[in-house]
Amino acid sequence: MSGRLQGKVALITGAGNGIGLAAVKKFVAEGAKVIAVDLDITNAEKELKGNDSVIFVRGDVTKEDEVNAYSFLGVEKFGKLDVALLNAGASHPTQSWLETDVAVLDKMYDVNIKGPWLGMKHAVAAMISSPHGGKGGSVVLTASVASLYGQTEFSPYVASKWAVRGVGLTAAQEFGALGIRVNTIQPGATRTQMYMGSFTEETRNEIESANVLKRAADPSEIANVMLFLASDESSFMTGSTVAVHGGQTPT
To answer: Which domains are seen in the chain, by residue range?
Structure first.
């Protein structure tokens, strides 16, 4: 199937690398116009140079004035906003709880919770201001497999990603009456800069051996599911948490 997002306008945060960049490429290939946002958008600009379906924005998901501005950019440039993939996130190296500085927790909540909370607030407002009034809109939040269980030496990240699920479930109830769907995706180990930087090779091997496929995902494999949730193919899905973790189901 092709053109699965034909005619739609999408906002994607965390679009500079990894899963976010993979999603930008897939959304554009399926017909969408995309507002691609990241603190460092250079890599995406290089890889998609000359593609007039993408507007690149250097933006901070924790700054409300910036979030408001880029959330309405699709409306300003393309006349509407249909999809918001609120994917930007931060991680941290594993460390004993007792040795973790509270600044790590502050950063995780600032980026991983405040970011999608603000993104939801302003993206939904942009959808409502569109000619369709929000009807048919789709919001996809990126949580983590870590939002399905606990993980030692990773408490700030785990706490923040559990909270993302709460944001998604609440938003699905609040905005359903407007015809806006909200779903959350839980990626497992994925070969991104953030994943590689958070864990040692030994720890990555342990993580990957915990899933039944015994490997990490390619970012495009996660982006495939994001594409489905953004498209009208998932029109009866909202309030769902979709695990894409290769069968990693610890308790």
So the answer is: 9-244 (3.40.50.720)
